[in-house]
Design a protein that fits this description.
Layout: E1 8-12, E2 15-18, H1 19-41, H2 46-71, H3 93-111, H4 115-140, E3 147-148, H5 150-156, H6 161-166, E4 168-169, E5 172-174, H7 177-195, H8 205-222, E6 230-231, H9 235-245, E7 262-263, H10 264-286, H11 304-311
Antiparallel strand pairs: 1-2, 3-5, 4-5, 6-7
Helix pairs in contact: 1-2, 1-4, 2-3, 4-7, 4-8, 7-8, 8-10
Length: 314
């Protein structure tokens, strides 16, 4: 007998608490803990990261919603109030990152910190949050891939019953793309932990490595999904994108698309990978990344006493 998870964790009177919210809240707290822990090595107050979380989370939600609405405008232009009803679904992770990064940049500048030094510290928090947050999609039975057989999930992937059962949606089993991305992000988190202790890492490069790793996984996993934001591109361009994804056809079939022929997240993933690599090369050649990850981090608005303490305690 299949057992499906109830998306509602509990209710208190008229207040309904969903597992999705609990999971996202847990992801934010784990990310905060990682940033605070690493920040202590650089004598940065935990309050700095707590305030960043309070600013970053709402900014990420707004960015995620605006990004989604912008690419699905036809579905919202005749009902503008629906834009604000995010509990009906419709957010995008790349939009969340844009919103959080813009808010973070403004916050760092006001606090007198170098943008690249702080986002390096936050990179593991971002990928850890995404790793945990994908399980909210699992509970909601959303953001899955195309149809698969039960035997594929049980015999080929050797998944436990509680995952297989949750992937049975409206009479059909589906790819657990949430799981693929969560595991990819777990490996990425371990990679970032290793990289940040390497002496060759310069300021901004851990953040770039996060984007490169995440975007590689997102490009290939996105091709399995059936709910991608998409657009119609020339056939030669769609063929190019399909060619880049073609190694996946050795194992899986691509997910169907309701409209368009190029997935926006896949295109954005490729552009981010290219931009991140170019950024690392240019910053090194121009000498803009002279600071190493392990160098002291001092706010330009710190007092002389703070600067002396930070310089001698790492």
């Amino acid at each position: 007998m299949a057992y499906l998870l109830d998306p509602i964790a509990f209710s208190l009177g008229f207040i309904t608490v969903r597992w999705y919210g609990i999971i996202l809240g847990s992801a934010a707290l784990v990310g905060l803990w990682l940033a605070v822990t690493e920040g202590k090595r650089f004598k940065i107050s935990p309050d700095f990261f707590m305030d960043l979380l309070l600013i970053g989370v709402p900014s990420a939600i707004i960015g995620a919603r605006l990004y989604y609405v912008a690419f699905k405008w036809d579905a919202y232009k005749d009902n503008l109030l629906e834009i604000f009803q995010i509990w009906h679904g419709g957010i995008a992770i790349y939009g969340a990152l844009i919103g959080a990064i813009v808010a973070g940049y403004i916050y760092f500048k006001r606090k007198g910190y170098n943008f690249w030094r702080i986002v390096d510290i936050c990179a593991p928090s971002l990928i850890a949050g995404q790793m945990i947050g994908r399980w909210g999609n699992f509970v909601n039975q959303e953001a899955h891939g195309g149809p698969v057989t039960e035997s594929f999930l049980r015999s080929s992937l050797h998944l436990p019953n509680w995952i297989v059962d949750q992937m049975y949606i409206n009479g059909q089993y589906y790819h657990p793309t949430f799981l693929y991305e969560s595991l990819w992000n777990l490996v990425g988190l371990l990679l970032l932990f290793w990289l940040r202790r390497r002496p060759f890492m310069r300021a901004g490069e851990l953040f770039s490595a996060y984007f490169i790793w995440y975007s590689i996984g997102r490009f290939f996993i996105e091709g399995l999904r059936t709910d991608s934001l998409a657009f119609s591109a020339p056939e030669w361009f769609a063929s190019l994108m399909n060619g880049l994804w073609s190694p996946m056809t050795l194992l899986f079939e691509a997910g169907s698309m309701d409209y368009g022929n190029v997935r926006i997240s896949q295109l954005l993933a490729i552009l981010i990978i290219i931009a991140a690599v170019v950024l690392i090369v240019v910053r090194r050649k121009k000498g803009w990344s002279a600071e190493r990850y392990s160098d002291p981090i001092v706010s330009s608005k710190a007092t002389a006493a703070d600067t002396a303490e930070a310089g001698g305690g790492i």
